[in-house]
Amino acid sequence: MDIDKIAASRSDAAAAQETGSSTGRNASRAHEDAEISDILDGTGDRKLHIAASWATIGIFLMLALAAVYTMSLILIPVTLAVVVGMILGLAAEKLSKMGVPRVLNAILLSSGVALVIFLIINALAGPVAKLAQEAPDFFQRTSDRLMPYLDRFKWLHISSETLQGSPMSINTLLENSGNVLHVVSSNLTPAIVQILIFFAALLLFLVSRLSLRKTIIMTFSNRAARLTTIRIINAVEQVLGFYFATASLIYAGIGVAMTVIAYAGGLSVPVLWGAFAFVASFIPFLGVTAMTIALAIAGILTHSDIVFALAPAIVFFAVHLAVENLVFPAVMGRQWELNPFVVFFAIIFWTWMWGAVGAMLALPLSLIVMTVIDELFIEEKAQPQLPG
């Protein structure tokens, strides 16, 4: 009897223990499920927050691009003035060390830029006027030279009579010269406004260059951030100044070589070809491509022999290729090389945004971005010391 009571009590105790452990396991499992639910809810909130952040950034970028495109009339000359002012930063520093006052410094540098532009325009005025006078004969020679090739493609249905009666015929172009002048004059007014904005912005930027530097540096309250800002500004001015001073000398040599090539190749207005080669060299890839194609077309229109006709384009392309791949890296060094795809994309993007001026600004803007990234993410740099 006592044995049965003991067994029963043990059985009840075991049952109670099992019930308690089961209840504990259930409570523990419920607690774990609650924690997992909280983690999942937190992950979902974080993902939603990240998505909202990226969406906000995307909307901001689209609005910024729309503003840059819409305000191109003002932003193009101002941006060009800032870039030119930063390029002239090294010259401004040297003049300041020589004791030249800040205002006189700005006047001298901006006047030098205006003088260079005036000399270029004055040098090209004669060749451009000559080219305009020869335009009717040039179009006629072009028509006579192209017609034998166009006659081979019967499906084009193009003949001499078609060209004479088309809207692009010489007589029609001469009759519509008044409309052409109206279009040129209507586009000339915004260009004059942009030129005035450029010189005003350049002068004011050079005058207030040091105060702008100080304002940008003092915007940051952290000493390390101020040192980084000083380093970035100095590096950008050094890169732009050295790059474009060296590039101008090298590309001036290409322009002289192109003038000789055009003269030896029998092309009209050799000086104009040299000027085009100098300007086109500042636009990587697209500039040399357009220049080579233009030389090939001009050679075909000038000479009947195909080998002699293509010789100027081939020689120019070979000279430019040798300069870009041998002379330029030897002078500039490998540390300032830009990714070709990045440069090409920048040229396409800024050409789409701001046209021809955007194409010329693509390279300096890429250099600025490259320098900023280099200074921000490469740590082992010589740290400048703040005064005091």
Fold and architecture overview:
This protein is an all-alpha fold. About 85% of the residues lie in helices and about 0% in strands. It has helices spanning about 1-70, 70-85, 90-95, 100-135, 135-150, 160-165, 170-175, 175-205, 210-220, 225-265, 270-280, 285-300, 305-330, 340-375. The longest helix is centred in the N-terminal third of the chain and has 69 residues, at about 1-70. It is globular, with a radius of gyration of 35 Å. It starts with a helix and ends in an 11-residue tail after the last helix. The mean pLDDT is about 75.
The general outline is globular
The biggest sheet amounts to:
none
Average pLDDT confidence is 76
Q: Which structural class do the helices and strands define?
A: mainly alpha
| Helix segment tally | 14
Summarize the structure.
With 388 residues, this protein is mainly alpha-helical.
Write the layout of secondary structure elements.
Elements: H1 2-70, H2 72-87, H3 89-97, H4 102-133, H5 135-150, H6 160-165, H7 170-175, H8 177-207, H9 209-218, H10 223-264, H11 270-280, H12 286-302, H13 306-332, H14 340-377
Helix pairs in contact: 2-8, 2-14, 3-4, 4-8, 9-10, 10-11, 10-13, 10-14, 11-12, 12-13
